[in-house]
Amino acid sequence: MKRILIIAGSVYVACYILFRIMNSEVWAEDGNKYVIYPQNPIAIYYAFRPLSYIDGFLTGMRSHLGLHQ
After folding, report:
1. What is the Cα–Cα distance from 51 to 30, expressed in whole angstroms?
2. 33, CA 20 to 30 Å: which among 16, 43, 52, 54?
3. What CA–CA distances, in Å, run from 25 to 21, 35, 37, 68?
4. Number of separate domains in the chain
5. Residue 47: which domain range?
6. Secondary structure, 3-state, 4-50
7. 67 secondary structure, DSSP code
């Protein structure tokens, strides 16, 4: 049981890292890097939001729902 939780947690973190790499951009307004979450499906935002808090605390990476306007 413990092994399954470790594997599931590792897959979750790996998926977030891959998502972060593929969906990050520097916003020209303030020069900061952001992870851009799509507005549809909103489930991606809710699935990765806990890790984005930790990521923001550790690395300073910010997040945004939808494109910057």
Report:
1. 23
2. 43
3. 9, 7, 11, 10
4. 1
5. 2-65
6. HHHHHHHHHHHHHHHHHHHCEEECCCCCCEEEEECCCCCHHHHHHHH
7. -
